[in-house]
Amino acid sequence: VGNSSVLICSPKPNMTMATWKINPKVGGPCSLGYRADQNKTDRTNCSDSINWKFRPDRDPTLEIRQVGRAHEGNYTCEVVVAEGNFHTPYYLTVLVPPRPTLYCDDQGNPVCEAASGKPAAQISWVLENNSTPKEEGHDDGTVTVLSKFTAYSTNVTTCIVSHLAGNWSKSIAC
Fold first, then answer.
1. pLDDT digits (tens, 9 = 90+) for 78-124
2. What would the CATH number be for the domain defined by 5-92?
3. Which family does it belong to (predicted)?
4. pTM value?
5. Among residues 15, 37, 89, 103, which is most buried (max CB within 10 A)?
């Protein structure tokens, strides 16, 4: 989320046409097209954040700026040359980093939470304990994971949140 994503579509010699067909999981489809005989580009229903990275007559690579969850979905580039049509399919998965927090509950137990991540984060503790993390799914496809530390023999506890978008750790004394 928030970064740029580049999807490569290899140019072919004597390319007559290049088209990106985009079908997001949410919202309607959009397309970008280029015709060499008219040296003309066309866009249908694409947001301003989706565009050619370079001049499409030289390189039909696609760039998505400020990637959001709405960009997730199928992307297909089609290059047309005299020898035929060449397709390059992609499925764009958008990672949403969780919002990690560590706090003490009313009973003085450390609680580690990784809110609204996609996919769900993994929570672990530096010292082993018998806690089973609980997951709560949200309508937007994100997941909140909550883990409570239940060992009683330590004063300072460290929670580790692991996620494809990055890792986080913090210590607390309850």
1. 999 999 999 999 999 999 999 999 999 898 889 999 999 999 999 99
2. 2.60.40.10
3. Belongs to the CD200R family.
4. 0.74
5. 15
